Amino acid sequence: MPVFCNSLWKDSEAAKHCNKGNINLAFCSTCGFIGNIAFDSAKLEYTENYECSLDFSPRFQSYAQSLANNLIKKHDLRNKKIIEIGSGKGDFLILLCEQGNNYGIGFDPTYVYRPQHDQYQIEFIQDYYSEKYAHYQGDFIICRHTLEHIPNPAHFLTTLRENIGESSGTKIFFEVPNALDIFQNLAIWDIIYEHCCYFTDISLSNTFSNCGFRVTDTSEEYQKQFLCLEAVSITDTQKLVNNHAKSLSKFKNEIASFNAKFQEKITFWKNKLQEIAHKNQRVVLWGAGSKGVNFLNILKEQQQIEYVVDINPHKEGKYIPGTGQQIISPEFLLDYQPDLVIIMNPIYESEICKMLENIGIVSEYITSF
């Protein structure tokens, strides 16, 4: 599989010959953690070309806005110093600083400077967060959709706890993809090389508890696609009492049958694409993020689907790694006139249908789940 789903290419042939790696998932029946034991971190280098922002979607904007409001209200984040680890292009940190008059520090090697960022009380550091930044202290620490990219999350969290220092009570908020959604609901397009770790609420809570934090809350958000955790730093490491034996036992059974179900889903989609080909239907995929890239690469789809639609203007005109489809804007469909649209994430179904209607496209659509 492509080692990067979110680094796009300017040339179709180059995209097809992108760097690739193997995914070989292993499951820990004690804590529920899942990891890619074939992962090689040397294959990945996060740069400014890495583009995974979802903030062009009204649906995602609404979620981010609501999350920011809730965190500000719950933790009284006003006139505070906030650190975000894995801040991306800065959108969420800007939300928190703008709405709470906070001062922000964002760490991310993929950050791209934009002049409009100068109006906010934010310092962006184009680097990975590590022990060398221990002198940066904050009232609240956020890390969203980053921990799953780190091959040794326990080491990372131990470093974070050491950086916080002797003072206890520093609050943190983490958000990761929800492994229960992926493996229970067969959201298989979310299994990508970049994600070397997959967390359930059990495994995530245990990891934090073993690294010097007390977990205060966990929740499933965004139609259960995301898993959120809140914790505070403590002075002594405490083992989490596992009260989830029943849930873990059920998860073990689902993991045992996952490979067969995975293959069934792949077979279904291969047959579906053959059916589309026999009907001579013109089909496009909607969503050039990790789900779309994974869908095309798992199915080895290079001919039947010619274009992938995405509303992120930074992706327009680029090409999908591994399979080489061109990424187009929704307006392109006016000339292309597809018969069928495959929607990669059902959470955006109503949003996408409204866009199609607004630009005058009458097409059949199906979701990939």
Q: What spatial order of strands do you see in the largest sheet?
A: 5-4-3-6-7-10-9
- Intertermini distance: 20 Å
Query: What is the CATH C-level name of the largest domain?
Result: Alpha Beta
Give average pLDDT, whole number: 93
Helix proportion = 25-40%
- Which structural class matches the secondary elements? alpha/beta
The CATH topology of the largest domain comes to Rossmann fold
Multimeric state: single chain
Tally of helical runs: 11
Strand element count = 15
Give the name of the CATH superfamily of the largest domain. Vaccinia Virus protein VP39
Instruction: Give unreliable regions as ranges.
Output: none
Main beta-sheet strand count, sense and barrel state: 7 strands, mixed
Taken from the alpha-carbon principal axes, the silhouette is globular
Order of helices and strands: HEEHEHEEEHEHEHEEHHEHEEHEHE
Number of domains in the coordinates? 2
The CATH architecture of the largest domain would be 3-Layer(aba) Sandwich
Indicate the radius of gyration in whole angstroms: 21 Å
- What portion of residues belong to β-strands? 15-25%
